[in-house]
Design goal:
Elements: H1 2-23, H2 29-48, H3 50-53, H4 56-82, H5 90-118
Helix pairs in contact: 1-2, 2-4, 4-5
Length: about 130
């Protein structure tokens, strides 16, 4: 869990830092970067609160990350497949978002594993009647 927490902190800082670097100086900075900054803050807060609250906030934060990436990936793929073409880099951006989604889903799975182990009622019973 410690490695996942560290990875979550790194991804949160990269996500928020990348958006700040991308939109810094643009008057539309806050509305365009707000979603990434919010998800990055949620991931950072979840990673720092695992000891106090368990793995549930971490799983929720990775779920937010996956939702954000999916909401960016689908319109990009739509433009790539059906037009109108976006400016250069649409294929690279689509591949990058796909990799981010795969990493996010793996991290979500890794954060859900301890939560499922800690709740015996979530495990299926083998042949016993309730």
């Amino acid at each position: 869990m410690a490695k996942l927490r560290l990875f979550t902190i790194i991804v949160a800082l990269l996500l928020a830092g990348g958006e700040v670097a991308r939109w810094w100086g643009n008057p539309r900075f806050l509305p365009l970067a707000f979603d990434e900054l919010l998800v990055g803050a949620a991931m950072l807060a979840a990673a720092l609160s695992v000891r106090r609250h368990g793995p549930a906030p971490l799983a929720a934060a990775w779920g937010l990350f996956c939702g954000l990436v999916l909401s960016l990936l689908m319109p990009t793929l739509d433009h790539l497949l059906f037009g109108p073409e976006k400016p250069s880099g649409a294929v690279f951006y689509s591949v990058t978002l796909s990799v981010m989604l795969a990493v996010g889903l793996l991290a979500l799975w890794a954060s859900l594993k301890p939560a499922l182990k800690s709740h015996p009622e979530s495990r299926p019973e083998s042949g016993r009647e309730r």
